[in-house]
What does this fold into?
Amino acid sequence: SPFQMGSAKRQAVKFPELKFFNCSVNQQSSAVRTYYPRFHEAKYLLGALAAMFSEDHRIGYIADYPIFSTIASINAFALGAQKARPGVRVLVAWTGDWIAPEKEREALYRLKMENADVVTYFLASQNLAREAQSLEMDYIDFHHPGLNWPSHCLAAMETDWARVYADLLRLNLHGQSDLTYWRGMTEGVLSLRLAPKIPPAEEALVLRARSELLKGQPVLSGQIEDGEGRLRCREGEVMANSSLLSDMNWLVKGVEVIDAR
It folds into this structure.
């Protein structure tokens, strides 16, 4: 966790013979290496899928904190949605915690009141997925949906943590461990699962976008404006990794933060 970086740094100084790894992209010290999936890659594809199922052009996104790569993931999700359906809006609600069932429920009900008809999330548990299913809202899961697909689950993003830790061990043993391990769909760290009910046309669009990504097409590239109309990336340009990791404290045009009151 990025909130444990301070503790990890203190322990690294205390035990210099050990290698410390922190699950975040908040690289602050050469004594502590960080690792994190490139979630924004998968979120871009899932944004396109969500837009195709949103009749009201409003998609809900619930997450813990507006920090680090979380904002990059929201922006990528919104760009994918807007490419599939121009004019779609992404409504964001922050819970302020990694697991907060009551706050998650309040955020979901507020989004429903705002006429969001598809929702996704970035949280540690599947409480929100179960709540969305009970409200008969289509949703995209952040975790494995289980053996039997819930009727309102459109897709799921899965992280191969075993692959991540195997990579970290292998790289460390060979002395090749960089300060930041940041890998995604191209390396097989992230994968998507589409619900069996997804129609062929919608499935083909997502798979085509996935193919372009795997061939090296950057997700956050081309002309991108923020919510205030400021140009953040120009046509023909690609946003630098450093921007995604530490400098992205803005949301793209079409993303609106709401209070989960």
